[in-house]
Write a structure and sequence with these properties.
Length: 349
């Protein structure tokens, strides 16, 4: 059983302290022999500790009883340092923007134990939620203040701060032009050769900066599914904002269809779509080796013509069929109709 005394939290906002010295002071305060007992340490803003990765590596290798969780506001730098220096010694917990339930709980200061009872309230809050999925701003009233926060405290901090501090040869102007392009039209199909000509840079430079944006979780790249993960097309990739809230400051009047599509991409962690000639399916998911096509529609009613591409995809790959839309939850003729609020509550299909 874990006791409060076996848990240590420290933030390096307080200054530079060697983790071993910190644990020795912890032992003197608690009487716990950290070298032999199981203890849990949480080290925040670890990037502010000079040479942190080598110190954590030594602690991890020498004292397996010490369970370590590290965090920091410079998450990009943290992840790169971990990849470079802590191979085989770490796993990443990706803290995403707030879920719809978390947003509602924070905004209204109540715990939701039965989400089904709050369907109508969630539906009312949806428009506010998609703009404000960050804890600091859930109760802000003014959209312009929200958009300014996202531009300055999220995007600018990552592009002009974290990325520039982590990688060399960053072209800030190119990154910002790419963001403007991608966020103005979520779900756009990008042809690399055409983009290279448009931005006036080499293919290597463009693809490197595309990697920077994807690594920083500012965009989501979906490849064209060809029957397996190994056969995905390297051309004609679809680009989405990592979360729709990032794009709304650039396009406040975004079409509801694009809003829903981008949100579904985030919730399902999409990385594939399907396009063959005139036929296209928004997303492709694979779970337990079962392939499914996912279509996102802004309407409450569907007709067969709108779903013909999904039917062709299903026939070609023996795939499941999901429609995320604004109507009722149903399963009709082998198709799963899922209301967008249902998806946001469950966060899976």
């Amino acid at each position: 059983e874990t006791t409060p005394e076996s848990i240590l939290y420290f933030t390096f906002d307080y200054g530079q302290v060697d983790p071993f010295d910190l644990l020795d002071k912890y032992s003197k305060m608690t009487g716990i022999d950290w070298k032999h007992k199981k203890v849990y340490i949480f080290l925040d803003e670890i990037q502010k500790l000079s040479g942190w990765s080598s110190k954590i590596k030594m602690l991890f290798d020498t004292f397996p009883n010490v369970k370590i969780t590290i965090s920091g506001s410079a998450s990009i730098q943290l992840e790169k340092d971990a990849m470079d220096n802590l191979a085989g010694r770490y796993f990443i917990i990706d803290v995403k923007p707030l879920s719809l339930i978390e947003f509602y709980e924070l905004k209204h200061s109540k715990a939701i134990t039965n989400p089904a009872l709050y369907r109508s309230e969630f539906d009312i809050e949806f428009e506010s939620y998609i703009k404000r999925p960050f804890p600091e701003i859930v109760s802000w009233k003014n959209d312009q203040d929200v958009f300014t926060y996202i531009r300055e405290n999220v995007l600018s901090k990552i592009i002009r701060g974290d990325l520039q501090d982590t990688f060399e040869n960053i072209n800030l102007s190119l990154l910002e032009r790419m963001i403007n392009e991608f966020y103005a039209s979520p779900g756009m199909i990008m042809n690399v050769d055409e983009s290279v000509r448009k931005f006036g840079v080499s293919k290597t430079t463009f693809e490197r900066h595309l990697f920077f944006l994807e690594f920083a979780k500012l965009i989501r790249v979906c490849a064209n599914f060809r029957g397996s993960h190994m056969a995905m097309s390297r051309k004609s990739k679809k680009i989405y904002p990592y979360d729709v809230s990032l794009a709304l400051p650039f396009n406040p009047n975004m079409d509801i269809g694009r809003i829903l599509e981008t949100k579904v991409a985030s919730v399902t962690d999409a990385n594939m779509y399907w396009r063959d000639g005139q036929n296209e399916v928004d997303f492709v998911t694979i779970e337990d080796q079962k392939v499914s096509g996912v279509e996102v529609k802004a309407s409450k009613d569907m007709n067969q013509r709108e779903l013909s591409s999904l039917d062709k995809f299903s026939a070609k790959f023996s795939a499941g069929k999901f429609i995320v839309y604004r109507g009722e939850d149903n399963k009709i003729n082998g198709k799963n109709y899922v209301n967008i609020i249902t998806l946001l509550i469950k966060e899976n299909l």
